[in-house]
Amino acid sequence: MGNDTTIFWFRRDLRLTDNAGLYHALRDNKPVVPVFIFDTEILDALEDPGDRRVAFIHQTLAELKEQLETLGTSLVVLYGNPVTLYRSLHPRAVYTNHDYEPYARARDNAVQALLEKKGVAFHTCKDQVIFDKDEVVKDDGKPYTVFTPYSRRWKARLTPFYLKRYPVEKYTGHFKKIKHQPFPALEDLGFRGTGASFPERVIRTGIIEKYDRTRDFPAIQGTTRLSIHIRFGTVSIRRLCQVALRKNPVWLNELIWREFYAMILWHFPQVQTASFKPAYDRIAWRNDPAEFDRWCTGQTGYPIVDAGMRELNATGFMHNRVRMITASFLTKHLLIDWRWGEAYFGQKLLDYDLASNNGGWQWAAGSGCDAAPYFRVFNPALQTKKFDPDYAYIKKWVPEYQDGAYARPVVEHAFARQRALNTYKKTLG
After folding, report:
1. Choosing a second label site near 408 at 20 to 30 A (CA), which of 12, 28, 133, 366?
2. How many domains is the chain partitioned into structurally?
3. DSSP for 246-306?
4. 361 is catalytic
5. Annotated binding residue at 130?
């Protein structure tokens, strides 16, 4: 890749349609070489060689490469530390899309500084959210830390301009004509195939229309299962928001929650490792390793909790209602630090997103912005009665729950609830 070519760097935007950075790269430059980097700083931190997310990315890139080759170009796949790799590349310019996580920001700053020393322009574009950074803030310019006023301002700012698609297809002739490029096997990356099946990249409007009535029942498919595609950008957030505006305001709110947490992480990057409310970092967590293991493996003796954990371990998916129940159970019933649970979800979730995962866990623990109050302790039995009344979800994942072989409860609910309240009160006053 010489100085006559422009690189478009795919990351969380693995699609050719309605891709902001790709559109600007192709419109403003030619020829353009599409590049993806398997970032070893990220891959080396993954403990499971059968990580389903790597398999999903690998499968998606293979499909993307096929699409590009029908256009007379290909996908250049690299492996290594991006900063190191860019030292040996000398393009005319590099285009990519914004990323808001602390590691990604540091990586992009380092890449930009390196390229600028070589006289190479580095352009990033907004693509994975509708509004970012300081686009939705209070009148005084400070970021919102409560969802409802943030969502009101978000909706007030929304105009058709922000949902307009980027017509990449007009400029695909600007891709550099290159032959079929080598494509690494998972084994070349230190991983292996999983045989996992992934949710289809299909926007099911029928589900979206009923979402407000079906979203809380884990035994039925009342949610779209699009979260993995949103996470890796295989669908356009602008297209999803267009559908949400037409079909269901409750589903739109879920998309706005995602942006709210992304902007919390942007403005308050310390939440990656610390409580948004600093006082909560003084809580005397019990952090019992044996009890944590029972939670991880779905052996707590609470069927709705165990069903959720077993589904997560088996599939990489957990229903959002069940995520709240399992997170509340870990932090309140077992008094285990929310960071332990967040890290475990980070290892297992197909749709793992740092901002949303962190926000959800801190919400459950009471330590986050706009979080559930510390004295809200989900009762697993009542949650089951309300959201899995026929035990259909539980029967699927915990078939032995009525047998004598089923695990005894790791702790009694009323005792655990009072213990949690006492512990929180002692710290918070």
Report:
1. 366
2. 3
3. HH-HHHHHHHHHHHHHHHHHHH-GGGGTS-SSGGGGG------HHHHHHHHHT-SS-HHHH
4. yes
5. no
pLDDT score at 336: 98
Q: Is residue 346 part of a domain?
A: yes
Q: Is 313 known to be catalytic?
A: no
**Catalytic one among 29, 97, 154, 257?**
257
- Same domain as 134, residue 118: no
User: Could you tell me the CATH number of the domain that includes residue 394?
Assistant: 1.10.579.10
Angle between helices 147-157 and 249-267 (to 10 degrees): 110
Tell me which residue of 72, 57, 66, 77 sits closest to 9, measured CA to CA.
Answer: 77
The predicted-structure confidence for 261-308, as pLDDT tens digits, reads as follows 999 999 999 999 999 999 999 999 999 999 999 999 999 999 999 999
Q: Which of 207, 240, 267 is the last residue of a domain?
A: 267
Same domain, 240 and 292: no
Same domain, 123 and 158: no
Is 178 part of any domain? no
259 is in an annotated binding site: yes
